[in-house]
Every structure is written in structure tokens, then in C-alpha cells.
Design a protein that fits this description.
Number of domains: 1
CATH topology: Muramoyl-pentapeptide Carboxypeptidase, domain 2
Largest sheet: 5 strands, mixed
Distance between the termini: 32 Å
Helix content: 25-40%
Radius of gyration: 14 Å
Order of helices and strands: HEEEHEHEHEEE
Bound molecules: zinc ion
């Protein structure tokens, strides 16, 4: 699956695609957007927000990393509106605000293994290593420990 495939798939499901981003909300019908991820897994965790913006390249990258890891991965944070980002003490210029970041964790609890996979195979963008999750984004290439 490449960028064109995933854009076509979203358009088939009547989801607005602008550039590399899609915009949807919880009333958008759910479907498998990639082999292992359903659209609604990428919904903002802010129940007050109606819309979620997310980068399709990041979704493809997450699926690729999950393939390499070989075990299910969950999402603890996705798109954040500026006010929601502030409420969860996110960085002011957080890539989450732009729909360019995901906080991810392995369902099998092997956080070390998951972070090792991400660090080894993620070629561009940011990787933030935390105790219970791994932040990935498509901003500038950088690495940090939280
Ligand atoms: Zn994050």
C-alpha cells in the first residue's frame, strides 16, 4: 500500500483528503485504513474535539513499523487541537497539533522491543522515547528521551 492507495481508499469512504492529511470525526464510519489499523484508532483522544486531522504518510509508516515489530500496537495520543494540547501539557509547537504525530505502545508490553524497532527502521522525522510509549512524527529528524 502506498500513499496513492491510501488516499484512494479514504476518498472511496468519502473522507476529505487535503495534501497528505485526512480530516474525519467519530461519526465517520469506521473501516480498516491499513492491514492492522482501523480509522477510529486515529481519532483524537479529546472527546470534546469534533474533528481529527492526521497525516496519511504517518499512518503508512506506523503500519510498516508494526509489520517489522510483528505484534499489535496501540495509539495513546493522536491529533490534538491547540487547546487540548495545552490541557495535556504538550509542547507548544507539538507535531500533534498538526496531525503529524502519534504516541504508540505495544499491546504485548514489550516497550523496549517496540522502541528498538522504531529507532532502527524509522528513517526520517522525530522519535521520542518514553517509559510507556514511543512518540513518532513526521517533523524534523530528531531523537529524544522523555
Ligand atoms: Zn507525542
Amino acid at each position: 500500500m502506498n500513499l496513492k492507495d491510501i488516499k484512494d481508499l479514504c476518498e472511496k469512504h468519502n473522507i476529505k483528503v487535503s495534501g497528505d492529511h485526512i480530516e474525519f470525526n467519530k461519526s465517520t464510519p469506521d473501516f480498516h485504513i491499513t492491514k492492522n489499523f482501523k480509522l477510529h484508532e486515529f481519532l483524537t483522544k479529546n472527546t470534546k474535539d469534533t474533528a481529527t486531522k492526521i497525516n496519511l504518510q504517518l499512518i503508512l509508516e506506523l503500519q510498516n513499523l508494526r509489520n517489522l515489530f510483528g505484534s499489535p500496537v496501540g495509539i495513546s495520543s493522536s491529533y490534538r487541537s491547540p487547546s487540548y494540547n495545552k490541557s495535556v501539557n504538550g509542547a507548544t509547537s507539538s507535531q500533534h497539533i498538526f496531525g503529524n504525530a502519534l504516541d504508540t505502545y505495544p499491546l504485548n508490553g514489550d516497550i523496549k522491543g517496540w522502541i528498538t524497532t522504531v529507532v532502527k527502521y524509522k528513517k526520517f522525522g522525530g522519535v521520542g522515547q518514553y517509559k510507556t510509549f514511543c512518540h513518532i512524527d513526521c517533523g524534523a529528524t530528531r531523537f529524544w528521551r522523555g
